[in-house]
Amino acid sequence: MTARILVVDDIPANVKLLEARLMAEYFDVLTASNGRDALDICDRTQVDVILLDIMMPDMDGFEVCERLKSNPRTADIPVVMVTALDQPSDRVRGLKAGADDFLTKPVNDLQLISRVKSLVRLKTLTDELRIRHYSTRQAGIDDMLRLQDGRLEEQAQVLLVDSRGASQERIIKALKPIAEVSAMSDPQAAVFEAAENGFDLVIVNCNLDDYDPLRLCSQIRSLERTRFIPILLITEQGDEQMIIRALDLGVNDYIVRPLDPNELVARALTQVRRKRYNDRLRHSVRQTIELAVTDGLTGLHNRRYLDTHLRTLFARAKVRGRPLTICITDIDRFKQVNDVYGHDAGDEVLKEFAGRIRSTVRGADLACRFGGEEFVVVMPDTPAEVAATVAERLRGMIEARPFQLRSGETPLMLTASMGIATLVPGVDTPEQLLKQADRALYEAKNSGRNRVVAAAA
Ligand SMILES: [Mg+2]
Question: Domain of 228?
Fold first, then answer.
């Protein structure tokens, strides 16, 4: 995972220490020795996570954090407060200023790396949603501010999994001002409950009898219906290895006992806000995509969406030095289907073809109808070899199963040809990349159809 981390501290030795540890993990590290420089850097460049010292002359970490979070351009960058003061009141103040996490000096290596990695993952998800939001809507700044609005219009719905009655009661009481809490002591029943009802947050207490709390967390993460629900883990002091594993599993945050009610409220609020923000983005993305940028026949994205979104993905891949591959595919001898069976049959084939593309591509891939019988799949973060495997799988799925027409005609045996091209140095525009893939497709057609051809790098 490569990402750009900004380290902010007024003491050069502290900066050096964190920089060295992060660079050892191949992160790209920027540094600043004061709040102003930090804000400047965030405004100018793409930063994925900020490690922010609290005690600094002029502008302290709380103020830097507040400013970052009130600027729509920088509000999504996760902030980790790094402080020598291990005071619950500071934590709460930091969380109120919008900080996403804390590290206490001297910073523990494993904790540092696992926290940064988990925040980078979260940031990647939010970025992706934001890009799609912008691609579809070209939203104005007002729109973003509205999405950013962190207030809770309604009580949060929290599911608490905790084996002890007394502990359940304490937590319910602490969260009362912000949340309606459903408490359960049976972890298996809790998974069903989480899948059935739309919770904003699941809190898992590690005190479960005869049950591995991490198993519960991993089940929640893997179910389609619960995978976006944030999880907050309550752990014992000294459970460091467990925390690290939990964060690796995708647990969003943890809190160590004895519980400070304020900290619990603040951490719960942070997770709920983030979830609602992402929910709203996802919803808005879904709505606008459905209306404006969907191909009416196949339900895939249309050419217009592809043009906007590919430009953004292309720019991002360039800036970050990540791979990006596109695949253009075209149904072989499609004209004959129309000529022999009519255009309705042709439409049926296109729909079925689109359905097979949809079931073949991976989560982050973008599938579009390019026009006519041509389709494009954009594969972010995917090198050519992997993309070739995906394309080959799709080619096989087209060939393997005949296309059944509603009219009851003999099922049609069809094939498709595919051309793929990967972003390499020298390719400067999305149009060039598309042209290369198109050329590869042409070659696939010319050399006998029903095959995948990769553009020469
Ligand atoms: Mg300091």
Answer: 149-286
